[in-house]
Amino acid sequence: MKFTPTTLDGSYLIDLDAKEDERGFFARCFCKNEFYNHGLNAQWVQINNSLTKGKGTLRGLHFQYPPHAEVKLVRCLTGKIWDVIVDLRLGSNTYGQWFGAELSGINRTMMYVPKGFAHGFISLEDNSEILYLVSEFYSPSSEETLIWNDENVSINWPLQPLLISSKDSKAKKLQEIDPITIQE
What we know:
Keywords: Isomerase. Pathway: Carbohydrate biosynthesis; dTDP-L-rhamnose biosynthesis. By secondary structure, the chain is mainly β. It has one domain (about 45-175): Sandwich (Jelly Rolls). The chain has helices at about 30-35, 165-170, and strands at about 1-5, 10-15, 20, 25, 45-50, 55-65, 70-80, 80-85, 100-105, 110-115, 115-125, 130-135, 145, 165.
């Protein structure tokens, strides 16, 4: 696996080292030792799988407050998404800044999302299937959503959303969200 830091401290793009031959390919998506060697979380409590049926569907930007703040490892299995994270950590040099990358079943790139970040994506193809490894259990009382089009964050989405859930469309702006204090 190749770990490439993004512009937001603590987050990474991870490219699989696929071994290919006439049968197809084999690649490790996770190796506890490699994650530990990069100082990253290697403890997962849940694996989630979602299918986004239509191109232009936006999900997010979701996060959980401590004590249920979570690390995510996100991979697109089929289709293609524009995956976005926003730094919400109190005192961070990149607070309020975003980073985005294309994840697809073809490029096999993963996004490592640290605690204290909001996460979301827009589907760039129909039938995009996403796998998420998460470090904390879902906690409805700790969850929050950052609005996708906050002018103070100014995410450069590659296309206008065609479908957004009612909950995500009523999300809070950055200035309405308490910055997240992360204690390790």
